[in-house]
Amino acid sequence: MWVLKIIPLFSGLMVSALLLLAQKPMTVTTMDMKTITGCWQGTLTYLDYTTNKPFSMAADLEISQLREEGKFIFANIYPKEPKANSFNTVVIASDGKMIDGEYVKSKKRNADGSLEIITELTGKDGNDNRAAILRYTYNIGKNIYVHRKDVQFIGQKEWIKRHEYMYHRKACK
After folding, report:
1. What is the per-residue pLDDT across 135-160, written as a single tens digit (0 to 9) for each?
2. What is the SS3 assignment for 77?
3. For the chain, first and last CA: distance in Å?
4. How far apart are CA 116 and CA 96, in angstroms?
5. Considering all CA atoms of the chain, what is the largest pairwise distance in Å, rounded to the nearest integer?
6. Which of 19, 62, 115, 166 could join 75 in a cystine, given CB atoms 3.0 to 4.6 angstroms apart?
7. Whole-angstrom Cα distance, residue 148 to residue 139?
8. Distance of CA 128 to the CA centre of its chain
9. Half-sphere exposure in the Cβ direction for 125 (13 Å, CA)
């Protein structure tokens, strides 16, 4: 009689396991990122590891899509510190599982319609280049774009908010 009770339980576990295996891995598309092309104005707030205090500065961003699928140019402009200006090519992997070498961990649509993408990779951070897990959170909205980096040093449990860019869309010149 106990066998008759175990069979449905075992069958249910097998179906659950198959559904988990059949789920599509988290992926990002060019269309997900195309939403943020254009001009942005905002701030960069970062943790100064020397003082252990946050520091904020003006930051602008211009994003354009290259002709090649999955590639975008990010022009980081710091109005009060032009020597810090930089250009980066951000690449979405052809299978959508990575953004610029970062593994996509989650992707969800928020209640306000914005898209949240979380990526991770191992790397180094801090003044002493300690090994760490680097987590990036992209919040992409029609008129708001937030890009945040959190760091968890190897052997530590807590996450440190390393930096956060907060932008609002502006008209391009």
Report:
1. 999 999 999 999 999 999 999 999 99
2. strand
3. 77
4. 15
5. 78
6. 62
7. 9
8. 24
9. 22
Token output for 47: 């943790």
Return d(Cα 104, Cα 96) in angstroms, integer.
Answer: 8
List the structure tokens of 137.
Answer: 């959170």
Residues in CB range of 19: below 8 A, 6 or more apart: none
Q: Is residue 99 packed enough to be buried (19+ CB in 10 Å), middle (13-18) or exposed (0-12)? A: buried
Return the H-helix or E-strand segment holding 131: strand 130-140
DSSP 3-state of 6: helix
Angle in degrees, CA 115, 77, 49, rounded to 5: 80
The pTM is what?
0.83
From CA 141, how far away is CA 32, in angstroms rounded?
10
pLDDT of residue 24: 54
Radius of gyration of the chain, Cα coordinates, nearest whole angstrom: 20
44 and 163 in contact (C-beta within 8 Å)?
Answer: yes
Q: Is 4 helix (H, G, I), strand (E, B) or coil?
A: helix
Q: What DSSP assignment string belongs to 28-76?
A: --HHHHHTT-EEEEEEEEEEETTTTEEEEEEEEEEEEE-SSTTEEEEEE
Residue type present at position 136: Y
pLDDT of residue 19: 42
